[in-house]
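queue> pop job 88
queue> type: inverse folding (structure -> sequence)
queue> payload:
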């Protein structure tokens, strides 16, 4: 197998434009017969004669005498018996009857057989042949022979079959008597018999009525065989039974001819008196016969086209007798949609008639849309136009209108005397009996030559070029012409033609009952030029009184072949090229040279070589040149000057006739299939796609014939290219120009290449043959040299050659697909793909990427048919055919791919694990050689089922490299769009690996189209350990790849799947840069492009905006640093996570999450500090500073959380109890600061929301949140945290404490105030004295207590305030005692005796607590002394210490006793306090005295 021929799809696409354009113009040139006849009225000579120097257009191929048995029987009758004759072209038999005997024999050759069939006694008066209706007779009876005698009607079965060698389909014909199918004629003598394609049999009686024969298989009162009169009423039927014919009066006009139009379902009848009747048979041809029109005076209808012209001619003035209608023939829809019937007159004229009104031709005749199957209902019969009679006495060498006067008198009528006529598919045969000596046949056929180049032309206009031109030939004949029939194409040829042209020309023939032979014969009406490559020469058989004569119509290509065979002078060959045009003649040369013309005899090598030389001869086909465009020709005005205001366009190349001929030949080959779907849905046109059966529209045989012709033409062009013949040789000598011209590598041709497609594929609308009258502007500068023009033409022809090769391969592929049943192959296609397949045309299949994709899918389905689990063979079985027949669709890479698929299929069913792995590796090796062609989704799914993950990873990476070999995805300097496209291409490959990871993780995706359906038990059987094992294997294989872009894609996929642990364990060295960059880049740029650089990016600034999707990358980075014991870096990352701000206003971390980040950061900083201390690191100071920073931020965050909670509590409480100004926790909010509780609640809620968004500084928390909402307790804690000191700070702290105490007093009185003091004081003690101003607090609380006790608002104990102060100082009595001493010593502050008394009571409490602590310490002293801060005091030390404290307490008690006595209060009020101090003093002295012993 080899893949040597390289097809460039761009060149094929450009050539496809040429073919489409040529087909479009070919369709536009096909006129409706009515249009051609309308244009003919302006033509001076509608008829032409054949040049006498040329081979004859019409010639007699063979003649046969009548069978001897027939002549003998006729002579035995003495020439007085009843004799009839005719031809049955359907079975290739001629027939003749003599009295009651019927004879049948071959009309195309004499085989010595002439069977005779006899009827009883009566002479045969009419004979007909009808198609047998299915289901009535045995299958061998395909036709019925209908015999009519004056007394009975008889059916005879006709069976025909191939001969012994099987080559002749009409070799044997036998007649089968059907005795049950004979009925009386009821006294009616039949004149003619005809039938429809559906088997209906009509007969015309001499009584002027039309009858139909009905035959069935029924029995009983329904007769099997009966005759029905269709045109008479009940009275007429009774009269024929009752009144003898002797007594019937009135003229009878018998029907002498009937003709059936099977397309329009019309029956025409002609009578002796030249009436024409029109009957309709229903829309489908099965309805009752109904007469819709009858015209008696057709000859009197004035024809404006030719009637007036002919009456003025001398021949018309000498006409002695009124002409009669000789014959009628229906016109097929292929010829005309508006004209339905042609009537031939005895003077040679033709009347064209119509049965319904029509809008005329719509320009789609023969077009790609086919004919409209809807026909207007017949309603009348009228003459539309008349064609003048052919010129009299025409022979092969006479010119227009020549009249032979030999042997004629001056008074003899010079008009034609037509006895018999025959018309079919554009050909007219007339039997002219006007010559006195010998009859002749006038044969009129369509003239295919170009009217503008005919000699004697009077300068035909565009209208005359559309006129119907016919060539007239004359043949002498012995005897009289009795009958004429077409020799239909052989069944094989007809089937091929019908399959190709059914949709175009026959409106979908499969819905018709017409035989393929008859249908294909209608294509002769199109003319020879467009059909001579596919249709054989037309032949007719003429039945004369002397025998049979076979006449053939030589096509233009046959005439050219004869000219080449006879070594005619060049002048005659040039005349041929001039008459048909260089393009058409070159196309015929191509047909002969490539041997693609349909011919009975093979084209010899000599003729083929001569045709090739003519095709390449620049003297007759011309050379490429420049065409003067409209811009150039109009630059000179009518006055001879230049028009300076007009745009001068560049002249365009005009290629030679060789190129034009190649375009014509190629387009005519491809015309039947180019723009039509290659697939159809069987079951009717309305069948739904999912319910129908998809099949190839063309038969395999038709595609084979067309493929062979296309390949032959391409082979010829390739051989001329390889031999450097013609322009190929000219271009080959141009040096550097040859490379791109001959092989299409894409190199430029200077300035000409910039518009090559426009010049070569669209601007060649006129042929070279029309260059004769063109003048060139010699003043213009030629944009192309002759060498460049030649190179451009060769380039264009090479593109068309590639198109032909590609088309042949497409047809081969369709044949192969059709042979394997399309419906079975496409059953796995989804609905969209099936729809694309049904709409696929050959044009798309050959020239488009979509077609190439569909072809690949079809080949895949074909391969699956062979290599699937229930496959029918191996890859090599079908690959050999594909590689040989369509290498551009099935490349070497495809071959290796399907070899790999075969290995995978074998591995899937192999139980041995070693063999399974070896097969999988073999498949992997095949695919590694062609990574760009592999269908990775399907293949990798199979490798995944086999657990061969090496291929799952490496194959997509290899394809990614194949799709981007230049590495555009890594190049930041190129166009961003190009780079983005490269990245997208690579990521499509990466996604395959990612989908496998998802499947292993348990998040499987849907099965891709085309992947095999495997049992899910295999995957379900995997345990978690196996899944993790395979995941780690995939990650390790992926990390080994040098594709850095894939690493980022892999890392992101693993993060999304929650495979962080595996990523941290097996990630590559670029994991850290990836995580750093992915966390810093905006989300739309997160492509892991950090792998493109080797530098490590920074972590970013703390507090920067981070998207929620990026946070996971930082979180993973911190985990990575922790696992690698890089605590400082981990602390920095955690700090950034804690301080990050949200970019989209959502998915921001909560304060609790931030607290967790900071707590972990503190732990990492402590770990770093400990490690540095152990290792003696010099970075201990840095780590200590980091730790302080983190701890401080954590403390501030704690304040923020506390403030947020307080604000939410405020808002919730106010929302629950609206309209009241309740006390809140830590105090009350004054109504004067807010306008109502609702506003306060909203404000608190908004501030709480602000606090939840990001971290705030301590200053913001204090000034913007704590102070406005009077959260004094938190304010004091923040002040303490901030280490406030100094006079100014002291006043702020004192003021804050005062507000806090007042807030507590308002909320719960002194008890609440003492509780707040205990709670807050204990948190901030010990301090420097400024944060906890005991004297201020003491005085504030004592005053408040005294006022409330005096007023009776609150019962307050004497010890409450003192004990609160002691609790705030964590039990330290001396600071509290000092505060009281300071207050008592300041008489200006304590001017009230009652207040001083209350303070003294509190002092007594403090002293008692102090003394109690001393006593407790003494009781707890043991042998080793009390435990203090991990050390011990000796007994002597403890005694000395206690003695000093007792002295202080005793001295203070004594002093305060004196102070009590000095109060200006009654003794009754002070006695209790005084006695308390004295008892305390005495107890301390007594205790000391006892301790001394």
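queue> result:
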């Amino acid at each position: 197998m080899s893949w040597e021929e390289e097809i460039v799809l761009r060149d094929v696409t450009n050539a496809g434009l040429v073919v489409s354009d040529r087909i479009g113009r070919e369709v536009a040139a096909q006129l409706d017969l009515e249009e051609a006849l309308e244009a003919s009225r302006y033509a001076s000579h509608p008829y032409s004669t054949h040049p006498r120097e040329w081979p004859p257009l019409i010639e007699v191929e063979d003649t046969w005498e009548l069978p001897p048995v027939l002549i003998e029987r006729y002579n035995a009758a003495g020439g007085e018996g009843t004799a009839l004759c005719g031809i049955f072209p359907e079975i290739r038999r001629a027939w003749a009857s003599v009295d009651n005997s019927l004879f049948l024999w071959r009309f195309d050759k004499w085989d010595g057989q002439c069977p005779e069939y006899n009827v009883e006694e009566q002479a045969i008066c009419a004979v007909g042949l009808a198609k047998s209706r299915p289901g009535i007779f045995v299958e061998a009876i395909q036709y019925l022979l209908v015999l009519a005698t004056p007394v009975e009607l008889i059916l005879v079965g006709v069976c025909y079959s191939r001969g012994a060698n099987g080559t002749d389909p009409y070799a044997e014909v036998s007649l089968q008597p059907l005795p049950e199918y004979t009925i009386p004629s009821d006294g009616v003598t039949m004149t003619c018999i005809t039938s429809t394609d559906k088997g209906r049999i009509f007969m015309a009686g001499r009584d002027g009525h039309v009858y139909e024969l009905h035959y069935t298989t029924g029995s009983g009162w329904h007769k099997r065989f009966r005759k029905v009169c269709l045109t008479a009423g009940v009275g007429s039927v009774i009269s024929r039974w009752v009144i003898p014919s002797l007594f019937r009066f009135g003229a009878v006009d018998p029907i002498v001819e009937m003709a059936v139009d099977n397309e329009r379902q019309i029956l025409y009848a002609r009578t002796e008196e030249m009436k024409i009747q029109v009957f309709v048979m229903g829309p489908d041809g099965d309805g009752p016969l109904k007469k819709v029109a009858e015209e008696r005076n057709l000859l009197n209808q004035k024809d404006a086209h030719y009637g007036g012209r002919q009456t003025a001619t001398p021949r018309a003035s000498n006409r002695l007798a009124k002409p009669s209608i000789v014959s009628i023939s229906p016109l097929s829809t292929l010829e005309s949609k508006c004209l339905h019937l042609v009537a031939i007159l005895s003077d040679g004229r033709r009347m064209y008639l119509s049965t319904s009104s029509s809008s005329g031709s719509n320009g789609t005749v023969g077009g790609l849309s086919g004919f409209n199957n809807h026909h207007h209902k017949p309603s009348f019969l009228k003459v539309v136009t008349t064609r003048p009679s052919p010129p009299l006495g025409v022979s092969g060498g006479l010119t227009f209108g020549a009249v032979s006067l030999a042997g004629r008198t001056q008074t003899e009528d010079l008009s034609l005397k037509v006895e018999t006529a025959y018309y079919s598919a554009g050909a007219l045969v007339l039997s002219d009996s006007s010559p006195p000596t010998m009859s002749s046949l006038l044969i009129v056929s369509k003239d295919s030559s170009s009217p503008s180049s005919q000699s004697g032309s009077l300068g035909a206009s565009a209208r005359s070029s559309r006129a119907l031109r016919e060539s007239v030939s004359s043949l002498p004949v012995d005897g009289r012409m009795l009958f004429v029939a077409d020799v239909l194409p052989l069944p094989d040829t007809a089937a091929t033609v019908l399959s190709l042209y059914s949709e175009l020309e026959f409106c979908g023939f499969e819905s018709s009952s017409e035989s393929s032979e008859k249908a294909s014969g209608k294509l002769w009406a199109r003319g020879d030029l467009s059909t001579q490559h596919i249709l054989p020469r037309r032949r007719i058989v003429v039945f004369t009184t002397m025998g049979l004569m076979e006449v053939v119509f030589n096509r233009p290509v046959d005439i050219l072949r004869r000219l080449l065979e006879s070594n005619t002078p060049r002048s005659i060959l040039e005349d041929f090229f001039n008459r048909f045009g260089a393009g058409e003649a070159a196309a015929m040369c191509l047909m002969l040279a490539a041997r693609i013309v349909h011919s009975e005899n093979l084209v010899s090598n000599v003729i083929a070589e001569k045709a090739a030389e003519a095709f390449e001869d620049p003297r007759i086909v011309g050379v490429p040149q420049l065409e003067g465009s409209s811009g150039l020709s109009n630059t000179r005005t009518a006055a001879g000057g230049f028009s300076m205001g007009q745009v001068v366009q560049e002249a365009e190349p005009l290629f030679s006739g060789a190129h034009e001929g190649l375009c014509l030949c190629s387009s005519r080959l491809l015309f039947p299939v180019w723009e039509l779907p290659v697939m159809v849905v069987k079951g009717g046109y309305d069948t739904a796609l999912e319910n129908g059966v998809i099949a190839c529209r063309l038969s395999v045989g038709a595609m084979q014939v067309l493929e062979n012709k296309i390949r032959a033409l391409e082979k010829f062009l390739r051989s001329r290219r390889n031999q450097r013949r013609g322009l190929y040789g000219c271009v080959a000598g141009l040096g550097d120009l040859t490379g791109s011209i001959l092989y299409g590598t894409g190199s430029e041709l200077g300035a000409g290449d910039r518009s090559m497609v426009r010049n070569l594929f669209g601007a060649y609308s006129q042929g070279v043959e029309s260059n004769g009258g063109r003048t060139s502007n010699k003043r213009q500068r030629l944009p192309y040299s002759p060498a460049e023009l030649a190179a451009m033409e060769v380039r264009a022809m090479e593109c068309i050659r590639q198109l032909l090769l590609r088309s042949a391969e497409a047809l081969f592929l369709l044949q192969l697909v059709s042979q394997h049943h399309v419906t079975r192959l496409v059953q796995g296609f989804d609905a969209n793909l099936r729809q694309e397949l049904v709409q696929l045309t050959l044009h798309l299949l050959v020239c488009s990427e979509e077609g190439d994709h569909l072809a690949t899918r079809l080949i895949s389905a074909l391969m699956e048919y062979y290599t699937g689990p229930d496959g029918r063979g191996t890859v090599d079985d079908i690959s050999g055919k594909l590689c040989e027949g369509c290498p551009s669709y099935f490349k070497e890479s495809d071959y290796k791919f399907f070899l790999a698929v075969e290995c995978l299929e074998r591995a899937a069913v192999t139980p041995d694990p070693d063999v399974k792995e070896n097969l999988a590796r073999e498949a992997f090796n095949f695919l590694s050689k062609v990574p760009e062609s592999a269908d990775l989704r399907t293949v990798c799914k199979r490798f995944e089922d086999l657990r061969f993950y090496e291929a799952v990873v490496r194959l997509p990476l290899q394809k990614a490299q194949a799709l981007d070999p230049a590495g555009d995805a890594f190049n930041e300097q190129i166009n961003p769009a190009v780079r983005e496209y490269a990245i997208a291409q690579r990521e499509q490959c990466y996604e395959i690996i990612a989908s496998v990871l998802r499947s292993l993780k348990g998040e499987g995706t849907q099965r891709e189209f085309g992947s095999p359906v495997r049992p899910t038990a295999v995957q379900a059987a995997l345990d978690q350990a196996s899944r993790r094992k395979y995941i780690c294997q995939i990650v390790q294989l992926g990390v080994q790849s040098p594709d850095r872009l894939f690493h980022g894609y892999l890392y992101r996929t693993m993060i999304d799947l929650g495979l962080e642990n595996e990523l941290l364990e097996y990630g590559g060295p670029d994991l850290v840069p990836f995580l750093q960059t992915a966390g810093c880049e905006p989300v739309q740029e997160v492509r892991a492009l950090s792998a493109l650089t080797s530098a490590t990016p920074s972590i970013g600034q703390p507090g920067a905006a981070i998207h929620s999707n990026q946070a996971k990358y930082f979180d993973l980075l911190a985990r990575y640093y922790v696992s690698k014991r890089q605590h400082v870096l981990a602390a920095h990352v955690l700090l950034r996570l804690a301080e990050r701000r949200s970019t989209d206003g959502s998915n921001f971390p909560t304060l609790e999450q931030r607290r967790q980040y900071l707590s972990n950061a503190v732990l990492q900083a402590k770990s770093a500090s400990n490690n540095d201390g152990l290792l003696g690191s010099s970075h201990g100071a840095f780590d200590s500073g980091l730790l302080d920073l983190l701890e401080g931020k954590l403390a501030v965050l704690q304040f923020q959380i506390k403030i947020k909670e307080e604000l939410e509590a405020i808002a919730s409480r106010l929302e629950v109890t609206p309209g009241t100004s309740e006390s809140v926790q830590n105090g009350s909010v004054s109504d004067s600061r807010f306008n109502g509780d609702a506003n306060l609640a909203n404000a608190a809620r908004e501030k709480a929301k602000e606090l939840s968004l990001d971290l705030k500084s301590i200053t913001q928390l204090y000034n913007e949140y704590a102070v406005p909402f009077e959260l004094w307790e938190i304010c004091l804690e923040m002040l303490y945290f901030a280490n406030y000191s100094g006079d100014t700070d002291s006043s702020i702290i004192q003021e804050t404490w005062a507000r806090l105490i007042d807030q507590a007093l308002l909320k719960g009185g002194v008890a609440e105030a003492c509780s707040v003091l205990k709670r807050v004081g204990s948190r901030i003690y010990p301090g420097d004295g400024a944060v906890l101003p005991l004297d201020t607090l003491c005085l504030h609380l004592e005053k408040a207590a005294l006022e409330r006790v005096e007023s009776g608002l609150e019962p307050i104990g004497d010890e409450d305030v003192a004990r609160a102060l002691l609790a705030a100082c964590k039990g330290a009595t001396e600071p509290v005692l000092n505060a009281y001493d300071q207050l008592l010593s300041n008489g200006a502050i304590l001017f009230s005796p009652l207040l001083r008394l209350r303070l003294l009571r509190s002092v007594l409490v403090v002293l008692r607590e102090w003394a109690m602590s001393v006593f407790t310490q003494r009781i707890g002293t043991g042998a080793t002394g009390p435990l203090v801060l991990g050390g011990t005091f000796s007994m002597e030390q403890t005694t000395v210490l206690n003695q000093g404290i007792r002295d202080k307490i005793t001295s203070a008690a004594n002093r305060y006793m004196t102070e009590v006595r000095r109060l200006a209060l009654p003794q009754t009020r002070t006695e209790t306090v005084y006695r308390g101090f004295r008892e305390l003093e005495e107890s301390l002295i007594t205790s000391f005295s006892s301790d001394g012993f």
